[in-house]
Amino acid sequence: MKIQFPTIAIVGTGAMGRGIAQIAAQAGSQVFLLDANPGAADAAQAALQEQWNKLVAKGRIDATQASELVARLHPVKAVADLAGCDLVVEAIVERLDVKKALFAELEAVVRPDAVLATNTSSLSVTAIGAGLQRPERLAGFHFFNPVPLMK
Ligand SMILES: NC(=O)c1ccc[n+]([C@@H]2O[C@H](COP(=O)([O-])OP(=O)(O)OC[C@H]3O[C@@H](n4cnc5c(N)ncnc54)[C@H](O)[C@@H]3O)[C@@H](O)[C@H]2O)c1
After folding, report:
1. How many angstroms separate the CA atoms of 83 and 10, rounded?
2. Could you tell me the strand order of the sheet in which 138-140 lies?
3. Is 17 in the pocket of ligand 1 (CB under 6 A)?
4. 4-35 per-position pLDDT tens digit
């Protein structure tokens, strides 16, 4: 099966970012995890490992599959580490100024064909993209909580 986005970055590894990272890894993508809070990306990886271990205990996946899923998660420390990603999904704090600043920083490092997406609940995607050099590549990519359980 062809994976549409082989490399996905999740920025913001709180409640939503973790769930999005889980389904992205389960879809076969390599998943980079970035959070402004030091240690949060590593904590997200550990929490997802725990999640997959529970699926092993329930017999839904085997231990090898769980190890392969964990190996697809890559905690990183800086926006610059996301340069090679095909898709970046933002799930940070719900503040227009902070999201705009993040996307400006991302746009400076990702490839021209990379897709940027925001998981905003209530902000205008157009407003978030205003000021970007290529606002047309910013998508609203809204997930519902809990992400792994929602269609
Ligand atoms: N919780 C929900 O039910 C829900 C549903 C749909 C959409 N959303 C939206 O998803 C986004 C994330 O929500 P959440 O509930 O996961 O929040 P959360 O507070 O659980 O997680 C946000 C994470 O982003 C990190 N962060 C904050 N600013 C950052 C920055 N500049 N760069 C990198 N990381 C940063 C924080 O350290 C935190 O780990 C928000 O925009 C929210 O409105 C939330």
Report:
1. 13
2. 73-75, 30-34, 7-11, 87-90, 115-118, 138-140
3. yes
4. 899 999 999 999 999 999 999 999 999 999 99
Which atom from ligand 1 is nearest to the alpha carbon of 102?
A: 31
Is the beta carbon of 146 within 6 A of some atom in ligand 1?
no
Q: Where are the domains of the chain?
A: 7-149
Query: Is 150 a pocket residue for ligand 1 (Cβ < 6 Å)?
Result: no
Where does residue 111 rank: exposed (0-12), middle (13-18), buried (19+ CB within 10 A)? Answer: exposed
CATH class of the domain comprising 7-149: alpha beta
Amino acid at 82: L
pLDDT tens by residue, 42-97: 999 999 999 999 999 999 999 999 999 999 999 999 999 999 999 999 999 999 99
Task: Report whether 25 contacts 55 (CB < 8 A).
Answer: no
Cα 94 to middle of ligand 1, angstroms = 7
Respond yes or no: is residue 74 known to be catalytic. Answer: no
Indicate which residue's Cα is closest to atom 21 of ligand 1: 14
